Input
Amino acid sequence: MVVVLENNISDSDKSKVRTFLESKGFKVREIVGEQDTIFGAVGSVSIDKREIELLKGVEKVVPIHKPYKLASRELKKEDTVFSVGPVKIGGNRLVVIAGPCAVESREQIIESAIAAKEAGAVMLRGGAFKPRTSPYSFQGLGKEGLEYLREAGKLTGLPVVTEVVAPGDVEMMKEYIDVYQIGARNMQNFELLKTVGSMGMPVILKRGMSATIEEWLMAAEYLLASGTEKILLCERGIRTYEPYTRNTLDLSAIPIIRKLSHLPIIVDPSHATGLRDKVLPMALAAVAAGANGLIIEMHPDPDNAMSDGPQSLYPEQLEKLICDIEALSPVVGKELARIPHINEKEAIEKNLRDSGSSLKAAFQGKPGAYSEKAIMLHFHEDEVTAVPCESFKDVFDAVLKGDVQWGVVPIENSLAGSILENYDLLSLNPDVKIVGEVKVRIRHNLIALKGVSLKDINKVYSHPQALAQCADYLKKHNIEPVTYYDTAGAVANLKSFEDKHCGAIGSAEAADLYGMTILKEGIETNPNNYTRFVVIVREDFITVDNPVKASVILTVSDEPGALSQCLSIFADHKLNMTKLESRPIHGKPWSYKFYIDIQIPFDKDQYKEALEAIKEKASDFRILGEY
Ligand code: PEP
Ligand code: MN
Output
């Protein structure tokens, strides 16, 4: 059952409630949520709930009706989010775990790890103990495989996951791995679940090939009850009458699990389909259905793999898949997790050492602005406080003065192009650097006071860009656009007008925050509306380990071919340029500086050499950030 505690309960009353529950034979777990603090109390004890409700500091007692208790949303409303090394799992993040079915040799797993990392995966998989259907098939390298896996993980900075098949191996494996995997064949091996759960380490729990969703959640309950909360459920296909694919991927399990449980769910399209060419479409479908991540088999040489070659992707296929997922993730309100994204742990620790104060990220606009949404996507809600600022310059100033640790500013919109003011601010502030980026899908909503209907509205307020992006809808409904300096501000102001003939265009979050109603969702003419934000910090705040992208700024001399010579340096070093933007130099009419984004390869030598060569050639050169 869920024991909801009063907001102002004292520590001593809280411990009395806990002691009481424990004395009755319950196992008690405290869960601190956004709204309230609760005790989850489980056990096969029958008690009149009024006995507990009478205790001081208890607000109410809610029974959990499902057979799984600790795994249920009834117990915990917020998504479970946990870290595996630098990788955050759950909530708004999409993680891609990749690697071969089995560790075959030191060279093979190192090659796989580098390919996985280069493609954008954030964790490495590889089996050392393989539960094979035939006793004559390759059974894995055992402990030797674990050693190679650990070496490959260390080399690339990727946390590693591997399957555990016997309770007796659990303790030994702990030194080598970051995540235990419980395979489909062992989902109901309760001794294994109990032993793995007692380690308190992260676990991927695969769905058994004939397990119902409830049986699967009961298996998760074993892990939770034995001591770990870091569980990642994995849908890997179930057995049906259809022989075309190895299993049938049960995509509907994703929204079902997300409704029933707070635990994150990932999908394994490799074992689900058994066919390499079916992996990409099923992976995209899983993301569209709301999965928190994917685990994909990829092999440097799938044609000669010792197990599951036909379902293993070639490294370049994994790269394409991750690119496609990155494009899809903002559509479903998620962000692809990247290892080099701000090492938030490091930053948090540093900040606590330096100031002892809470972490803040500044954005331009009023609460409910799209920039605030970018902060919530990039960080986890309880990690930072979003601080509203009037202008983009104020965001930069807040970062420079140390009032906030981070700033998040828009840099480019997929329809309207670059936000030039922020390019200029980056160039003018050498003590600020970029440490990350985040893409947000912009969905405009027609918002009004509660009780108002569409036919009452004849005027809407919003930022000029939002009005332009919704022009077709406004015209069709004969609504007059009126400009306002920001979208969330327009929504906030509706309240003060109290005019039921006025509406505003803004985010769903703004409507919610200011107690408004959404008359129509998604009124933008073109739904392909995304904004890319950059995350900025003070130059000396944190550095990003293993960056994959660099933003640089340079000026070239005013002579024929000067820009082309600079750009050919990137081409000569096989570096991929993803953006080029030119801006006039203030005070020097008709001279320009260039902003360039480049992908940084795993092997940094080429990149470093290219930078040296560019520094020689360009008259002014600065790295805006490596992230
Ligand atoms: C695996 O991931 O290598 C594996 C054996 O998967 P499953 O347990 O889903 O069959
Ligand atoms: Mn496999």
